[in-house]
Design goal:
By secondary structure, the chain is an alpha+beta fold. It has one domain: 2-Layer Sandwich (Alpha-Beta Plaits). The protein is about 30% helix and about 30% strand. The protein starts with a strand and ends with a strand.
C-alpha cells in the first residue's frame, strides 16, 4: 500500500491513469484501487507487486510521489478471519 501526498489537489484523467497503468505493467506492478482524501491531496493506493522497490520504481517513472510504502502480508476481515496475500 502506498500513501501519496500531493502539493495540489489531485485531478486524475483517464489518460493519466492509462499512462500510470502502462508504466506499472512494464514494472510488473498492478494498481488495484485507491482512496482519495476529502481534500484531494492524499491517496492511499493498493497494489500487487513483486516488491516494494518495484512499486517505488514505477512511481518514480510515472512522476508520482510514494511517500510511504507498506508491504502487506495478510488480509483480516471484520469477522476476524484472515488470509495470506
Amino acid at each position: 500500500m502506498i500513501e501519496r501526498r500531493y502539493a495540489d489537489d489531485l485531478e486524475l484523467t483517464a489518460d493519466d491513469a492509462n499512462g500510470v497503468n502502462r508504466i506499472n505493467s512494464e514494472e510488473g506492478v498492478e494498481w488495484l484501487y485507491s482512496f482519495l482524501s476529502a481534500d484531494k491531496r492524499k491517496t492511499y493506493c493498493l497494489y500487487e507487486a513483486p516488491s516494494a522497490e518495484a512499486i517505488r520504481g514505477a512511481a518514480a517513472r510515472a512522476g508520482l510521489p510514494a511517500d510511504v510504502v507498506v508491504e502487506m502480508r495478510a488480509m483480516v476481515r471484520p469477522d476476524g478471519s484472515s488470509e495470506p496475500l
